[in-house]
TrEMBL record:
Pfam families on file: PAC2 (PF09754)
Membrane-spanning ranges: 219-239
InterPro entries xrefs: Proteasome_assmbl_chaperone_2, Proteasome_assmbl_chp_2_euk, PSMG2_sf
Source species: Armadillidium nasatum
Protein name: Proteasome assembly chaperone 2
Family: Belongs to the PSMG2 family.
GO biological process: proteasome assembly
Record's keyword terms, sorted: Chaperone, Membrane, Proteasome, Transmembrane, Transmembrane helix
Length: 242
């Protein structure tokens, strides 16, 4: 399963839009929870569709056995932890093989060693991800630890929203894939995230100039949007929605 987190420049959300619009996906349901501010709109992927989009939509790609969750609504602060706990439980109950969270992090908060080389990083939980070796083969770098004022070292994700919180709550192998970015027009960042993800997981053909033009025209989001992208991989059985 794949999902985006509230993050710098909405990179995760834009990347998920590109995945949903490029893969042969079908909408299979919505998520409802008190943490989600209710919204409704037209189908952003097909102008001729009578389908609606909501605060949290689930899409399925049968060919790749992948479920994609796109959340467009901000989470109510007092309900956020409850939502993430229920989401992680649902993911576990559905017996997904693994999960990937797409996110981004503030480029201005990098330390010197992070300013050169690849700008992609990953953070994984305690469960062994089945594709971790492949991720390292394509150049995946684990997020470096940072030392706080008390001398405690942790892997941090400034600007990455609640991606790390979901990571700690997840009961299956989960990886947060992130990129250091600046705020602004982040469409190219989203394209590079999808390209890196595809180099690792090989979900779709290389993004072409035609696809890029389509993407830029269709999915330009303001910086105030919120997102949470979850990619659930190798689904089994039926779904029980929250």
């Amino acid at each position: 399963m794949k999902e985006p987190s509230v993050c710098v420049g909405n990179v995760g959300q834009l990347a998920m839009d590109l995945l949903i619009s490029t893969l042969e996906t079908v909408k299979i349901g919505i998520l409802h929870h008190p943490a989600l501010l209710p919204i409704v709109g037209y189908d952003p992927y097909n102008n001729k569709s009578t389908e609606i989009s909501t605060a949290a939509d689930l899409h399925l790609c049968k060919d790749k056995k992948v479920v994609l969750l796109q959340i467009r609504s901000p989470l109510i602060k007092v309900e956020k932890e409850s939502f993430l706990k229920e989401l992680s439980s649902w993911v576990s109950d559905c017996a997904f093989r693994s999960a990937i969270v797409l996110s981004s992090s503030h480029a201005q908060l990098r330390f010197d060693a992070q300013m050169i080389g690849s700008q992609f990083r990953y953070i994984c939980n305690e469960f062994q991800h089945p594709d971790i070796d492949r991720l390292r083969e394509v150049g995946g770098i684990e997020m470096e630890e940072r030392e706080d004022d008390c001398g405690v070292k942790k892997r941090r994700l400034p600007g990455g929203g609640f991606a790390l919180k979901f990571l700690t709550l997840s009961k299956i192998p989960t990886i947060v894939l992130t990129k250091f970015v600046d705020e602004g027009d982040n469409t190219n960042d989203a394209l590079s995230v999808v390209s890196f993800l595809n180099n690792w997981a090989q979900y779709l053909a290389r993004v072409t100039k035609v696809e890029k033009t389509f993407f830029l025209e269709k999915f330009i989001w303001g910086t105030s949007a919120f997102s949470f992208v979850l990619i659930l991989i190798n689904y089994f059985g039926f779904f029980r929605f929250i």
